[in-house]
Amino acid sequence: MLPAKKLTDKQMALVDTLVAEGCSIAKAAELAGYAKGESGRVSAHRALKAAHVQQYMQQRMNETFGITATSALATVRRLSQGAKSEYVQLEASKDLLDRAGYKPIDRAQVQVAGDIRVSIDLG
What is the pTM of this model? Predict the structure, then answer.
């Protein structure tokens, strides 16, 4: 098995900028030190296609989601308890219940009992 490829400083900066800022690839490439203009954007696109860069990006996104999930939960909880609109309170409360595993059934199951006969007289 081949050893994992190491990220360059530019690749790491590119991914970190994309994840932290949510900006375009062209802007992230410029901030990460890639050449300005079209060539920098193309180089950044190529870098982002590499498996080891994608793996690092996934890792950084997971870390960021974990950190921001706590503040998102606090916001939804605050809305469910104190929003001025009852509709907002209802939707926030439903979202909390859904995530806690108390989601209502999405579809009804319909059973039809009986005997169906089709008779075609072609004569």
Answer: 0.63
